[in-house]
Amino acid sequence: MPIYNAPLKDMDFILNDVFKADEFWQANENLAHLDVATANAILEEMAKFSKNVILDLNRSADESGGAQFNLGEVKTPEGFKEAFNQFAQGGWVGLGAPEEWGGQGMPKMLTVLADEMIWSTNPSFMLYPLLTVGAGMAINDRASQEQKETYLPKFYTGEWSGTMCLTEPHSGTDLGIIKTKAEPNDDGSYNITGTKIFITSGEHDLCENIIHLVLAKTPNAPAGSRGISLFIVPKFLVNADGTLGERNAVAAGSIEHKMGIKGSATCVMNFDGAKGYMVGNENEGLAGMFVMMNYERLSMGIQGIGASEYAYQNAAQYATDRLQGRAATGVQSPEKPADSILVHGDVRRMLLNVRANNEASRAFAVYVGQQLDITKYSTDAEAVRKANDRVALLTPIAKAYLTDTALQATLEAQMCFGGHGYIREWGMEQCIRDLRIAQIYEGTNGVQAIDLIGRKTTKCSGAFVAEYMAEIREFSNNMPDSKVKQAALNVCEKVEALTQFVVEQSKLNPNFSNAVAVDYLHVVGLLSFVYMYARIHEAARVKAEPFYQHKLVLADYYVAKVLPDLAARAERIYAGADLIMQLPQDYFTAQA
Amino acid sequence: MPIYNAPLKDMDFILNDVFKADEFWQANENLAHLDVATANAILEEMAKFSKNVILDLNRSADESGGAQFNLGEVKTPEGFKEAFNQFAQGGWVGLGAPEEWGGQGMPKMLTVLADEMIWSTNPSFMLYPLLTVGAGMAINDRASQEQKETYLPKFYTGEWSGTMCLTEPHSGTDLGIIKTKAEPNDDGSYNITGTKIFITSGEHDLCENIIHLVLAKTPNAPAGSRGISLFIVPKFLVNADGTLGERNAVAAGSIEHKMGIKGSATCVMNFDGAKGYMVGNENEGLAGMFVMMNYERLSMGIQGIGASEYAYQNAAQYATDRLQGRAATGVQSPEKPADSILVHGDVRRMLLNVRANNEASRAFAVYVGQQLDITKYSTDAEAVRKANDRVALLTPIAKAYLTDTALQATLEAQMCFGGHGYIREWGMEQCIRDLRIAQIYEGTNGVQAIDLIGRKTTKCSGAFVAEYMAEIREFSNNMPDSKVKQAALNVCEKVEALTQFVVEQSKLNPNFSNAVAVDYLHVVGLLSFVYMYARIHEAARVKAEPFYQHKLVLADYYVAKVLPDLAARAERIYAGADLIMQLPQDYFTAQA
């Protein structure tokens, strides 16, 4: 059976040595209630829950075929309900939610690490509370006081759950063409009619009510994305006293059969004149939904870290135990029929790629978490402005770059197992199948890249990247000399030139940005990871224990063996868009 | 449902325009019986069979759970038996086998293209005849006349099938430590005892007998790989008159539950004193098995092409049909709610990556096929020597590089579908699951890379690569100027320097080769593909029709957008092995 032990020591290192969480919390009166001991206690509790409760349910849910649909109802895999009750009773649903509504008020810097453990051990399970938390954020941000009072406390006890209903059969990335209608009633409510697909947790048996956040168009709404409003549509209508009333006209029509995350119910939801309540202003629904979307997007990045960490631990253990061949430098274990495959450079290369990805990704998630905490808790307006810009820039990196690298990492981890990696019982192939969706949902990674290069880069003429690099340069310049320092400064120079090129070319050629977006996203991802290694290096170099000194080797490994990808990405960007756009449309499907 | 149409026009272009198959065949008396019309007729027949018979069985086999095991027997998925009978009756099992034994005697240049269609439409199905063909080659190469007469004709009628039994629970890559024993009997036969795992088609219901080729150790055999012999172990013993006799003591203990190729039965085979017959000389079994292995390894590369072509066709059709957003240059289809996603550069980038991979891969397979045909049919000793060296060099490229690039290609094709790519009914996720094994089985791609950099490069001080590059330079120098010509010459220069570095470093550091092997494999792969584009360019540039002119654009695309990977690979190789090897073994599993 697959193993997992939460990397608590690494998490503590990132949180406390690299990002000095304690100082940060103590310096902010809204966070000063939190200290390192409490934070570590929370992580230790989640380490137990993830290992002891949900890890085994991950394989059994997949093997049993996952969530089951029957006559409009969804049965979650065996054990999910008990595990969810335990999770909810532990207060985990509202770990990062406002205390005012029953949450624990923990900062994002900390919750990203707790989330990682759940993503490592049971991604299907994670999706049930995840959407609830996102829906709660959108309601908290946009809804009326009465709506908040009605829904939020029930979310954080785990009694009710939330969903996000955007996609329709003909409308995914392009939400401007949704067809779902909202017809106003005399009482201020609306009748919602339409079909939504790919609705995670649209129907399930873990909670007594499900609160759908639905995008729909009111009569005479403007065409396109400026005519979309946001509605709360509960599965069961809620009485004035908060008890459950009659069943609303919304139901799951079926669930999808998917590559992975089989324990998660991905539903087709039919709204047949279901009663809905507008959230925020008419026609401003998309902005409200993006509060939720941006949260989910960072979460997808953490899904990547979780999978990659799980894959690493299992592959490293397998490689240690598996005996094949002998070391090139001579027999290492003469008492055994063969040496551990860890003696082979190619096996180490794969494991180090995975590990280098994990440590940088985790640091990056905590860094973005800290930026989010600044936007939420800081009272310094300029700091908040900077952090908002930073989060805007880095959300697509967190979502897309962390999941792109994680998929490659899990594939390399699987390869360490040889043929056994292809056999279900080892859990590696499920890890890859479960992770693959993270590159696709919440806006495909291509769409993230277009967001990065467009709204976050060319639109501000590269200002967000420039401010990010000013921070990276300042940090690096203050380091004593090292390979990582030189690499960070060198990458800044290259990214500066590339960004200038991108900004210029996008003005000359409307097709340019879209065609080079993914390469540019990877460039900013590499910049981010080398920055994380600069920070890791700086925190580790002052400590003599092997745990810290090995981090310096890993940082050098990253610079020597992963960062070279930058050269290829840059060449592709400089090659431009013309060769991509010049072939006629029918070239692609003409009989070859 | 997924679509597939064999790319007959592209195949004809590669075979006849690029590699001038007709001239090649006519110049060789052993092949002069074959002409273009016959070759094209064969490909057209296979195009029909693959599309009309096995394509639909691919999805249904996966959905039904694949091959089923019960009390030692394996039931293949519904429809496989009828399809296999049709396949066998069409003479397809022996398409490339010697006419002397009932085969069709077709050259490899042609059979690689027929094989591609089967890999595209039903990889699980393909594996049943594939192992038979491989076993037939080993028997033809190494066995006695009597053994050939007994087994080969039955293989090519499809009455009997073959397997390759190497791996044991503790012994995969390292075959020197196998435990299966062969005890001699007085009649010259042996009793074979041991357990073999991962045996493709080890048990099934398509044929009346199964002939296992088994590696085992005779008493007092030398330790390691020099003490391994090869045995024929039939499921049913064969009487002197060729009829089936009693059941032998070999049986499937179970079948594996796998990530993909679920229609293929991957068996645990238990040999309990089963009667076996030695093939070739004692202790020379590994060399005999490598006849079969090398054949399978090229086949795995073709599995990659097949999957990537299937993925391309489906993704291009989906992208054409899917309407989301508008072109950056203005509305393209005002009559529709949105433009086809083919207007977006990022979607085109993905499709062009896949297509660029397919056309180079296919050309490469035909090129390697031609080299194999030279080794088999040419009477010019120097030509045969050169072709043998070329095949030795390029077999790991065919196996590993073509499957590495194919996996990336199928992932990109899946991404074109957005969320729908994750849903089983579209067939894309199965394509990826089915393909993934090609990087793992028949020697993992890491092992292929070590073979390339070791036996095929450092061992001969780079002579094989040098001779290959002499051919590439000669060809390129004879081309009129173009980007592809310049790129090919430029890559040769870089690979020359890299190979020299690799040869030198491997003498200084025994760990060097293993640690950089995969990067070096990709370097030689990129060299090979740019050479293929030089040849494609040269064949296409003289023809005015768009079909040919578009190939020039694709060649330029390859140079501008895919070839840059070389820069990253080279940097990694120059970074060496030290950072990979310096961490202690317990670093990898120490609690983090």
TrEMBL record, chains A, B:
Enumerate the spans annotated as Acyl-CoA dehydrogenase/oxidase N-terminal domain. Answer: 43-159
Q: What is the protein name for this chain?
A: 3-methylmercaptopropionyl-CoA dehydrogenase
Q: Residue limits of the Acetyl-CoA dehydrogenase-like C-terminal domain? A: 470-584
The protein's required cofactor(s) are namely:
FAD
Say which species the protein is native to. Acinetobacter cumulans
Which PANTHER family does the entry link to?
A: ACYL-COA DEHYDROGENASE, BROAD-SPECIFICITY LINEAR ACYL-COA DEHYDROGENASE FADE5
Domain Acyl-CoA dehydrogenase/oxidase C-terminal as annotated: residue spans: 283-450
GO MF annotation: an example:
flavin adenine dinucleotide binding
Q: Main EC class of this protein? A: oxidoreductase
Function recorded in the entry: Involved in the assimilation of dimethylsulphoniopropionate (DMSP), an important compound in the fixation of carbon in marine phytoplankton, by mediating the conversion of 3-(methylthio)propanoyl-CoA (MMPA-CoA) to 3-(methylthio)acryloyl-CoA (MTA-CoA).
- What does the record give as EC number? 1.3.99.41
